[in-house]
């Protein structure tokens, strides 16, 4: 079997930075200090298990941060939550990805001018919750063109942005409909370059292999979208978390397989999947 691994597979800069900062904090902490993250640091069970083993706690609210070292993850948090963390925690390590912070700043800038913000993304995703927090109560989250149609017309001050890991094609379709509905509206293309490159490479790879394997958390939004991109090309696509999830009997039918991974998937998990596929050659 020929296996082609995407060059863009695995950690994006934002996730790598957040993990490095957390590992550095673990190395430097005093014996009586406790490190925690507000929500899961990244959407990957295997990495979270590793952090737990090293004593990193996961808290769900700023109220639990009192006296602890708190890491704000790459997705960022709403401004109110951020303030509370700085007030309650012993120390805050702000690992908000620079690109996410830029989107937060754009929303804040337009909100101050009285704009409403439409965010294309997953309503319950931490990044979107954080972004919405900057819209001064005038943030609306949509997922598709139909949701856009439900928003009443008439408002001239409208800003459109996307969650940094949104599907490019979905966003492009919404931009088109948005320009028709709100001719005076402002569009900011906020999908991260890392997401775009990853999706483009998967599209290209899907054109030259028989099947695609996408490695990453089953609850990782960007991994799910990557699998959607591969599937949309019409080839069989398998989303797996680890090599144990591979259906070897099924995989053995293919002569060429492409492998990519979400932005929160560590290299060792990708390596394990590739090794497992390679064993099919030896059996
Ligand atoms: S996908 Fe892009 S914006 Fe999102 S955390 Fe990674 S580098 Fe930052």
From TrEMBL:
Cofactor: how and how many bound: Binds 1 [4Fe-4S] cluster per subunit.
Q: Which Gene3D superfamilies match?
A: 3.40.50.11270, 4-hydroxy-3-methylbut-2-enyl diphosphate reductase, catalytic domain
Needed cofactors: [4Fe-4S] cluster
Residues annotated as binding dimethylallyl diphosphate are 43, 75, 125, 220, 222, 264
Q: Which InterPro entries match?
A: LytB/IspH (IPR003451)
Pathway-wise, it operates in: Isoprenoid biosynthesis; dimethylallyl diphosphate biosynthesis; dimethylallyl diphosphate from (2E)-4-hydroxy-3-methylbutenyl diphosphate: step 1/1; Isoprenoid biosynthesis; isopentenyl diphosphate biosynthesis via DXP pathway; isopentenyl diphosphate from 1-deoxy-D-xylulose 5-phosphate: step 6/6
Query: What's the family?
Result: Belongs to the IspH family.
Sum up the protein's function in the record's words.
Answer: Catalyzes the conversion of 1-hydroxy-2-methyl-2-(E)-butenyl 4-diphosphate (HMBPP) into a mixture of isopentenyl diphosphate (IPP) and dimethylallyl diphosphate (DMAPP). Acts in the terminal step of the DOXP/MEP pathway for isoprenoid precursor biosynthesis.
Name-wise, this protein is: 4-hydroxy-3-methylbut-2-enyl diphosphate reductase
């Amino acid at each position: 079997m020929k296996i082609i691994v995407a060059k863009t597979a695995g950690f994006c800069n934002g996730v790598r930075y957040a993990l490095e900062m957390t590992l550095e904090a673990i190395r430097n902490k005093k014996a009586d200090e406790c490190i925690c993250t507000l929500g899961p640091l990244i959407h990957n069970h295997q990495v979270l298990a590793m952090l737990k083993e090293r004593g990193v706690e996961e808290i769900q609210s700023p109220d639990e941060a009192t006296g602890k070292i708190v890491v704000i993850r790459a997705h960022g948090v709403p401004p109110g939550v951020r303030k509370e963390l700085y007030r309650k925690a012993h120390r805050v390590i702000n690992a908000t990805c620079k690109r996410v912070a830029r989107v937060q700043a754009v929303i804040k800038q337009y909100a101050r001018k009285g704009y409403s913000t439409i965010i294309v993304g997953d309503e319950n995703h931490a990044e979107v919750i954080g972004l919405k927090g900057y819209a001064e109560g005038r943030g609306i989250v949509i997922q598709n063109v139909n949701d856009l149609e439900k928003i009443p017309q008439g408002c001239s001050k409208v800003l459109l942005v996307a969650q940094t890991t949104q599907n490019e094609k979905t966003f492009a379709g919404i931009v088109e409909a948005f320009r028709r509905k709100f001719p005076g509206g402002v569009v900011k293309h906020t999908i991260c370059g890392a997401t775009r490159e990853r999706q483009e490479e998967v599209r290209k790879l899907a054109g030259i292999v028989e099947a695609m394997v996408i490695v990453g958390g089953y609850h990782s939004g960007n991994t799910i979208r990557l699998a959607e991109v591969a599937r949309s090309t019409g080839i069989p696509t398998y989303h797996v978390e680890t090599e144990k999830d591979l259906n070897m009997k099924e995989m053995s039918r293919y002569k060429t397989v492409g492998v990519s991974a979400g932005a929160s998937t560590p290299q060792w998990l990708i390596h394990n999947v590739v090794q497992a596929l390679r064993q099919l050659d030896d059996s």
